[in-house]
Amino acid sequence: MRFVVPVLLLALTVPLSGCSKAPATDGKIHLKYWAVWNGFELEAMRSVVDLFNRSQDRIHVDLLSISFLERKLLVATAGGNPPDIFSLGYEWVVDYAQKNAILPLDGYLERAGIKREDYIPVFWDQCLFDNRVWGLPINGSCIAFHYNKAHFREAGLDPGNPPKTLAELEAIEPKLNRFSGNRIERLAFIPSSQDPDWWPYCWPWFFGGELWDGKDKLTLTSPECVEAYEWVASFPKRLGAARIQPLRASFGNLFASSQNPFLSGKLSCLFQGSWMASFVEKYAPGLEFGVAPMPTKTLDLYGTTVVEGDVIFIPAGTKDPDASFEFIKFVASQRGTELFCTGMRSVNPRAVRSEEFMRNHPNPNIEQFDALARGDKAHYAPKVSIWYEMLDEMQVVLSQAWLHQIPPARALAKAQDRLQARLEQELERWRLVSQARHAEWDAFIEKSRKGVPLQ
User: Is residue 185 part of a domain?
Assistant: First the structure.
């Protein structure tokens, strides 16, 4: 879920550490850990927190589920009363680092012997900004092609051989689609199966495109990007907008329910995350499904995936960052990460894991997702401070393409113009303050590297 941060919070000036709190009466250091999860995901982290609390008698961590954490963290940090640890998606790294809302971990990591080689590269790289490490990855997910094996068999298709190219996917559509008069009862696949779409920006990757140059230029008008959204627009054109729109509208916000279009049999194939198995188990336990890479324009792109992950951070201004890192180190250990990722049914971001973890993992397709994350075609959202503005703009582009409101090339050009101007504005703002920020960060890194107490 995305929120707009109030303008007054765009330049935090809190100290990197040192806010004081009343001492605990039991002699322990008490740390507040804010997390966005609830349900079984929160309980997965609670099992790690409880294990840490039992493992020693110096630090006690209290885990709290916080709604609107993205907003509340900046308010709490600006007010001098942040939590001691928090977890959010990697997409916040650049924004929070530039706003001085999180601490660089490089000094701590060097002392602890934690290095890039300990992690699957894509997850470690998500935690970087300006050549500094801002958090540690604690779980991961990949987005892939899920397909109903029973539908494949019924249509005379081999359920062990899902399509690898977009042309192959289009070729099996007539065999999987089901119509009743002028009404669609089942679709093979559509690239936008929920509103708002969760990954409206991803399709250029399956055509060999990129969203930016990795530095200061967006590339939304590249031929690959235009072709990707022309492909999106081809579905209502090919199937009939008047027929397909009512079906898509009926999907609504029904993901976590038995009315999910994939779980209810209205979609034969779905582009979704590694968590899908949990919802199949809960809402459609008899569904036989397979998982494979999303089909791509050409075979050389096959294996392309979208990778996401949660990261654990230390907020700026916390009272005892040394104690906070002790907990982070425990969570990031093989034992802590495997316990959490098993409970989350997620990909383990660590490079090495135990045989027991893979053998007993509750996700039946964990090996496929693990291979996707380790592959050389793993993509993630551009690391720019305006990412959530960009995400909203790409939602508009996808909707305009899907509804045939304006040609995809024009929609992308308008988004490119708006977003490039915003990116340049933010880059200039960062240029004016970055030197001072770097000095402050490096001073903290040096102290934490030497073990200077940072209470």
Answer: no
